[in-house]
Amino acid sequence: MSDQEDHARFQADHEAWRDPASVVAQWQDGEAVRSSLLESEISGPWWDVLAETGLTLLVSREYEHLLMALSTASGSPQVSYLRLPHPSGIAFDAARAEVHVASTRNPNMLYTLRPAERLLPRRDLESKGIAGRVLMPASTRFLPGSTYLHDLAMIGPQLHGSAVGDNAIVSFPAGGDHQRVWWPSCIEGIAGADFGLNHLQLNGIAAGESLAESYFTASKDDLAGARPGQIEFAPEGRGVVFSGATRLPISRGLTRPHSPRFVGGDLWVANSGYGTVVNCGRDGRVEVVARLPGWTRGLCALGDLAIVGTSRIIPRFRAYAPGLEADKCVCGLHAVDIKSGRIVASLIWPAGNQIFAIEAVPSSMVDRLPFDAFDRMPDAEHALFYAWQAVPKPSQ
Known about the structure:
This protein is mainly beta and 396 residues long. The chain starts with a helix and ends in a 6-residue tail after the last strand. It is globular and about 65 Å long. The strands form 7 sheets. A 5-stranded antiparallel sheet has the order 1-26-25-24-23, with helices on one face. The longest helix has 13 residues, at 3-15. It is 9% helix and 41% strand. A hairpin with a 2-residue loop joins β9 and β10.
């Protein structure tokens, strides 16, 4: 090898992994985001609605590998992002001022993010401050890919997740490994509980104060026949909501349900395959609250409104959405009046694909992610990642 070739190879290695976006995602092309994925269309008073709440919306767009933040804390609409591998569930731990995000690839990763308070007083840094309240990646833990981690939720004071690959709910004790803490009785047999295959697509958590007061969604409640994810699986009407207390279904007749949440005191579920949001009573009734233009997934209560996500249909899984016209589905967010079911306002990403989760955090704590969607400032980004200092954790 010539000296020139040797120098070129060294220079290429020297320049690699210099962009903070790539370092955070552990992905050398992590900074490369198509601008079309970030462009949106608004209908109705979307930004006014968000401004009135005083909240920042965090949204995971799993197949675009984007965690998004939407806020108006700066006095005008603000859209920012952090690129992560296939982000799915999001959970806000208000007591510890932390946000957790599931990354559902092999291996799975569980990101913990914390708001930055200031820059460290460095003499080798010209910048002296931070614009806004930025949510920064603080730590990551790895899990086996077979965990197939989806939804996240704070149940009581502890983080929990739906381990879809195990047909179980797992907890994440501080400083310890994850452990299975709940599963439906339908996976139990003479040989014990079957944690070895994804039989149910147990993917959603409506978090109560305890596991017994929580509810969980799944695409079916038996171990027979084709499994969710297989093309031949017939999902229509087989979806259920499990009671945490009894480990049995309280609601049936759903089609690929996701994102169970408590809204206005009721248990709401995104009935994805029909593009609806339904109210699941404790007596087993299922009442349609709203119909939306896409595969419904992602649900967050904001006072008298609910923010609901819609996604496009993955072509090879069109049979999973028998109640939708695939060509008319859109990727976006919709503010829904919880009393009337009327769509008040929407934000649509025309080039977007799939939304998984929506979480709200106070804008006084977090109003953006590190990368501005339309005005990247590399010098400021490098300074931020070089010297950010987290807001001190609240005393426990």
